[in-house]
Design brief:
This protein is α+β, with helices and mostly antiparallel strands and 258 residues long.
Length: 258
């Protein structure tokens, strides 16, 4: 009799846990999404502070004509002094590539505010510390190499920089960055690890796409006005293409949930 009672209690507990688990997971995901938004707001503040000092937004790669773009330090490194007071960048040699011995310490250092708390558990592709927030360079895999006047050019380019005046009219519609569940390489490396264009064909948002995949139904996005909004995976493809470019965003609609 006692064994039967214990079994009955155990079954009730299992049933209760099974019923509560979806609610617990939902609450956890809601908290993760808020934390993810706050991470992007910190990046937004650093970008605005960078512009306040330099008069232009950061490029996709640290200016260094002696190195190809993919070996330069990333735009996230450019923002380093504007995140918080730290001695993390004291040893950095910005005249050398991100993968040089002098700079490897930083490539291996994970930064909490560059990582989404909902990022799926999966094997990393290297020992380098990635970012889950990737800059948007425009349309096409080579968008970061385009000149500023090209209609496919987005916010980030390797050798182009935007002053606020050039995007003020459409800043609430121009994408700066999107989160990704397909992080690779190091957050210190310029190139696909930290900046991407929208390929010619989608889908662009989702678990198997270059952006999104961390939160159900969409992705957190940072816009040029400093706002962070949630873009649904169901967003119209033409709208997403438009807000990924400086020229297209001028006539685009405002998208995303606050």
């Amino acid at each position: 009799m006692r064994a039967a009672t214990i079994l009955a209690v155990a079954l009730v507990l299992i049933l209760a846990i099974g019923l509560l688990m979806p609610a617990v997971l939902k609450v956890r995901e809601a908290a993760n999404r808020i934390n993810c938004e706050n991470n992007l707001r910190l990046v937004a503040l650093a970008i605005q502070n960078y512009h306040g000092t330099d008069g232009q937004f950061p490029p996709a790669a640290w200016p260094n004509a002696r190195l190809p773009p993919e070996r330069r330090l990333s735009w996230l490194v450019c923002l380093g002094p504007y995140y918080e007071a730290t001695d993390l960048y004291v040893r950095l040699d910005n005249n050398k590539g991100w993968d040089e011995e002098e700079n490897r310490y930083l490539a291996l250092k994970p930064l909490r505010f560059l990582q989404c708390p909902s990022y799926p558990d999966q094997l990393p592709d290297s020992t380098f510390a990635p970012t889950h927030y990737v800059g948007v360079s425009g349309l096409g895999q080579e968008a970061a190499t385009l000149p500023a006047e090209d209609p496919r050019a987005g916010f980030f380019g390797f050798d182009r920089r935007l002053p606020r005046a050039d995007v003020a009219a459409q800043s609430s519609r121009l994408l700066i960055a999107l989160e990704t569940s397909r992080a690779s390489g190091s957050w210190t490396a310029a190139g696909r690890s930290t900046v991407r264009g929208l390929d010619e064909e989608g889908p662009w948002l989702g678990a198997s796409a270059p952006f999104g995949g961390n939160h159900p139904g969409g992705a957190n996005a940072l816009f040029a006005d400093g706002s962070v909004r949630f873009i649904r995976e169901s967003v119209d493809a033409q709208v997403l293409r438009a807000i990924a470019t400086v020229q297209g965003s001028k006539g685009a609609e405002v998208v995303g949930d606050e």
